[in-house]
Design goal:
This protein is of the alpha+beta class. The protein is built from two helices and eleven strands, in the order H-E-E-E-E-E-E-H-E-E-E-E-E. It is globular. The termini are far apart.
Length: 207
């Protein structure tokens, strides 16, 4: 009788251990699934508009139109650190999804990529780099034309309460696309836009 009781107790203990291990595993999987979120300090956030690629000629039914007029579009985003110390930036690409009401399928932004910009230095993010970030994210573009925003968050590496405002300027150039010989055509328009910063509080963000 005593031996049977020991067997029952041992079996119950084994079941409890298996259940506990399963719960730990499930909790771990859930933690991994939510690992895309990121905790950031108070910062300034800049959403720089970009248009990249060649919009193919189309023959839509009037008054329907393509996203932009036929042509070749390119954007470069210039970043400058005016401070005496280095600034940390987090950058991500958020593609704009064409609305197809009522079934618009929004596209998640990419994960964030961190850079350090030293005092009085600058960097540029062009269409080639935007495609690179999308590819590193595992979501390379499949169309010849993309548009959206490069979102740049800036703060001091030691996360002080002082805002790390930086200079962000976007330059977009448009041409009519390759000519009959395949050579690029002359620029027919360009736009220089100073991108304003938005103050955001510290917190955890889903992307």
């Amino acid at each position: 009788m005593k031996k049977q009781l020991q067997i029952l107790v041992g079996g119950a203990f084994a079941i409890v251990m298996l259940v506990t291990a399963s719960l730990i595993y499930v909790h771990g999987v859930k933690a991994q699934n939510t690992s895309a979120s990121i905790t950031l300090p108070a910062r300034l956030s800049y959403a720089a508009k970009f248009v990249c690629g060649f919009e193919q000629p189309t023959s839509p039914t009037v008054p329907a139109e393509s996203q932009v007029n036929t042509g070749n579009y390119t954007t470069v985003i210039n970043i400058h650190n005016p401070w005496a110390s280095a600034v940390t930036i987090q950058k991500k690409v958020a593609l704009a999804t064409p609305e197809t009401y009522p079934d618009t399928k929004l596209v998640n932004p990419t994960k964030r990529y961190q850079d350090i910009v030293t005092s009085d230095h600058g960097m540029s993010i062009d269409c080639t780099e935007i495609v690179n970030l999308l590819t590193l994210n595992g979501t390379p573009p499949t169309a010849s034309f993309i548009e959206g925003w490069v979102v740049i968050d800036s703060y001091f590496p030691n996360a002080t309460s002082t805002a790390a405002g930086i200079d962000v300027v976007a330059v977009t150039t448009t041409s009519s696309g390759p000519n009959a010989t395949g050579a690029p055509s002359a620029v027919n328009s360009h736009e220089v836009t100073i991108v304003p910063g938005r103050s955001l509080p510290a917190g955890t963000w889903p992307f």
